[in-house]
Write a structure and sequence with these properties.
This protein is mainly beta. Helix content is 8%, strand content 39%. A hairpin with a 2-residue loop joins strand 5 and strand 6 (75-79). The protein binds FE2/S2 (inorganic) cluster. The site of FE2/S2 (inorganic) cluster (FES) has 9 residues, from loops.
Length: 157
């Protein structure tokens, strides 16, 4: 039988990987939240792939773990439930629909605002899912809310 790990007997993972759950469980639930070095992270399982992002939206801290996933131009995106910002799961880019007024009949097209939401590297090993600790030498807009909701913070809403 498996015993839950207790302090002192567990080997630290190489590279400080943080165990966030079992592969089968996350495949079933499709999403979980976890703490990685104190910050709230959401892990999605979507169409055969795992993705991890800061769970608090870079706009005003909305709960991305409660958002819907939509495919936009072939990219899976999370739609923030607060003000519907659209964020790519793979790169954390904020997308918006822009119009080029110089076109004869302007049609809105999806464009990128750049990488706004911090994404995290996911590793699956021995049926367990791990998230790498963030590289804080690079900053992202979502860091502000990650910091604000760190340690404590209510994941509901
Ligand atoms: Fe996410 Fe405003 S807080 S869109």
């Amino acid at each position: 039988a498996l015993h839950s790990p207790s302090k002192g007997t567990v080997e630290p993972e190489p590279d400080g990987l943080v165990l966030v759950g079992k592969e089968d469980d996350i495949k079933k639930s499709q999403r979980i939240t976890a703490k990685v070095n104190g910050r709230e992270v959401v892990v999605f399982y979507h169409e055969g792939r795992f993705y991890a992002l800061d769970s608090r939206c870079y706009h005003e801290g909305g709960p991305l773990h409660l958002g819907e996933i939509e495919d936009i131009d072939g990219q899976p995106c999370i739609i923030c439930p607060w003000h519907k910002y659209t964020i790519t799961l793979e790169t954390g880019e904020g997308l918006y629909q822009g119009i080029n007024p110089l076109e004869p009949s302007p049609t809105p097209r999806w464009q990128s605002k750049g990488e706004k939401q911090r994404i995290h590297k996911v590793t699956v090993k021995n049926k367990n899912v791990y998230v790498s600790p963030p590289d804080l030498s690079v900053s992202f807009d979502s860091d502000y809310f990650a910091e604000k909701y760190k340690n404590g913070g209510d994941l509901a809403m």
